[in-house]
Amino acid sequence: MYRKLVFDGVLFSFILSVFVFSTILRMDEDSMNLTLLSIVTVSLFLVGMGSSYFLSRRRILTLGGVLFEPNSTASGVWYKSLWAWQLVLALLVAFVMAFVKTGFSFIELFDENGFAGAMRLFQGIADPNWNILPKAVYNIIETVFMAFLATALAIPPAFVLSFFCAQNIMKSPGARLIYIFLRTGLNITRSIEALIWAIIFSVWVGIGPFAGMLALMIHSIASLAKQFSEMVEASEEGPVEAITSTGASKLQIVWYAIVPQVLLPYISFIVYRWDINVRMATVIGLVGGGGIGTMLVQYQGQAMWREVGCIIAVIAVVVWALDQASAHIRDALK
Amino acid sequence: MSGSILQVHHLSKTFPNGVQALRDVSFEVMPGEFLVIIGLSGSGKSTLLRCLNRLQEPSSGQVFYQGQNIADLKSVSDIRRLRKKMGMIFQHFNLIARQNVLKNVMMGNLASKSGWQSVLGIFSEQEKQKALECLQLVGIADKAYLRADQLSGGQKQRVAIARALMQGPQILLADEPVSSLDPATCQVVMNYLKKINQELGITVIANLHFLSLVRQYATRVIALQEGQIVFSGSPQQIDQEWFEKIYGAGAADVS
Ligand SMILES: Nc1ncnc2c1ncn2[C@@H]1O[C@H](COP(=O)(O)OP(=O)(O)OP(=O)(O)O)[C@@H](O)[C@H]1O
Ligand SMILES: [Mg+2]
């Protein structure tokens, strides 16, 4: 019930605030008044929640109801129902806002000058300068190993964390507390992009592959622990019950009844994570994480597109090869 | 009262979702009995067995095993000692699929092993011999080095029995041990249960569905209906009238 109310409230507030702020109270970057904004949006949110409650009392179906209350089946033609209009209106407003905010313009897309610049870039990239190939290969090797180390170092902590973050293991009230604490921590860690971790670590340990590796490692721990713990939660209850009934300890139960069930999926996730990390490592290089990305950003800054072309070619080949390899390995592990 | 191996007094179990699975269940088990529990699906049979070895926490009542109230056991190690004395087998066998048969059986001895020994997977020669003996008892020692998931259902259940025997139990709890087996294999497995009951003197408490099996193997029967005991006596006493009382009017004995 409360999810439905909150959803309807947010939707209502979103649609009306956009109207209010784009027509009556015009604000731009400098005249942005956060207090006013919050007052308007929050009060509209409350009005929205209220009307959603009122509507549900009168048995009128809202979009929140359709979403969060599966029992309430939508009936009748769509254009006669409120929820359909809510959906259409919300999408419409979202698209209009998005086009305005991103400054979407066909004029710029096909602008003469810009277009010529892009053509120069494409020409450069299409005709790579192979002289820097040795340097590019040297740097991509650095990137691949950076990703490898980040993945490898992330495995042990993620493995241990995965059991403490699995609901079916952490059952007693005390364990529950640890579970919630760890889950929250991991969710926060994961929600911070590796790119931002790279910025943090490049200040902390200095620009270079070490910072990039640490960034990828932190992100990998959080992601792997999440994926691992989902596998633990999906593991079969039967073996756990059987091993428990022999009088085994908690550690033994996890080790003998759960680990054999999750080992293959774990390896599969690890291989995939390495593959992702190689791709992320190239991007992380852009903000000072070392490796091929850092090299790329140097040539790009000097508009040396032929050199950029060479680097892109190297990245493409390596990423493609690893992608294939990881796909085949994961397939074999099924 | 004296001489019984297990005494259940006014046992009740209410799940957190409000389902009352057991209501004031009382009975006694004598050493060497082959006690069978029958009842409709959902009548609380599995819950009853799981309250005996504390896989489920009883809500109220007492269960005395060798004079001790197991519902009182607080420390984890006490509960583990209790479980070691009660082997358990399941409808779906619950073996560790990717391990070989011998390893599966040796897992029955985990309660006697230290943490690091078990994490490193160290099993002694003695344990191995014991496991092979247990497998021999259920006539399946030749499969010791096959992976558990390569066995047929009947073979899996025999391995599960061997794993339970490895614990050196006094009581064997069997939750629908033959419900996922065909009738012929059913008999084979039931005969092994009878064998360990009679030859090793292990008390068996089993949930069964088919009355023909009950008449063939049980020394005593308890019938549950909505968590309450509605019948207790010898299998021969279950006539058509009792049958309809337990399974509902209009039910027919298909077996
Ligand atoms: N973990 C649980 N949480 C909530 N309710 C449960 C739980 N386990 C069992 N129940 C309920 O308790 C009642 C008794 O279940 P139980 O599994 O003991 O029945 P059963 O006699 O073994 O049935 P079956 O022959 O189907 O195995 C059922 O109504 C069931 O829905
Ligand atoms: Mg059951």
Structure description:
The complex is a heterodimer of chains A (334) and B (255). Helices cover 80% and strands 0% of the residues of chain A. Chain A is mainly α. Chain A folds into 2 domains: 2-104, no CATH class; 127-333, MetI-like fold (Orthogonal Bundle), CATH 1.10.3720. Helices cover 35% and strands 23% of the residues of chain B. Chain B has 9 helices and 10 strands. Chain B has helices at 45-52, 76-85, 101-106, 115-119, 125-137, 153-166, 183-199, 211-217, 240-247; strands spanning 6-14, 20-29, 34-39, 60-65, 68-69, 86-89, 171-175, 203-207, 220-225, 228-233. Chain B starts with 5 loop residues before the first strand and ends in an 8-residue tail after the last helix. Chains A and B meet through α11 and α12 of A and α2, β6, α4 and α6 of B. The structure holds adenosine-5'-triphosphate and magnesium ion (MG).
Briefly say what this structure is.
By secondary structure, chain A is mainly alpha-helical. Helix content of chain A is 80%, strand content 0%.
Describe the secondary structure blueprint for this structure:
The complex is a heterodimer of chains A (334) and B (255).
Chain A: H1 2-24, H2 34-57, H3 63-68, H4 82-101, H5 106-109, H6 112-126, H7 133-164, H8 173-191, H9 194-204, H10 209-233, H11 237-245, H12 250-289, H13 292-301, H14 305-333
Helix pairs in contact in A: 1-2, 1-4, 6-14, 7-10, 7-12, 7-14, 8-10, 9-10, 9-12, 10-12, 11-12, 12-13, 12-14, 13-14
Chain B: E1 6-14, E2 20-29, E3 34-39, H1 45-52, E4 60-65, E5 68-69, H2 76-85, E6 86-89, H3 101-106, H4 115-119, H5 125-137, H6 153-166, E7 171-175, H7 183-199, E8 203-207, H8 211-217, E9 220-225, E10 228-233, H9 240-247
Parallel strand pairs in B: 3-8, 3-9, 6-7, 7-8
Antiparallel strand pairs in B: 1-2, 1-4, 4-5, 9-10
Helix pairs in contact in B: 5-6, 6-7
Adenosine-5'-triphosphate (ATP) binds at residues 15, 17, 19, 21, 39, 41-47 of chain B.
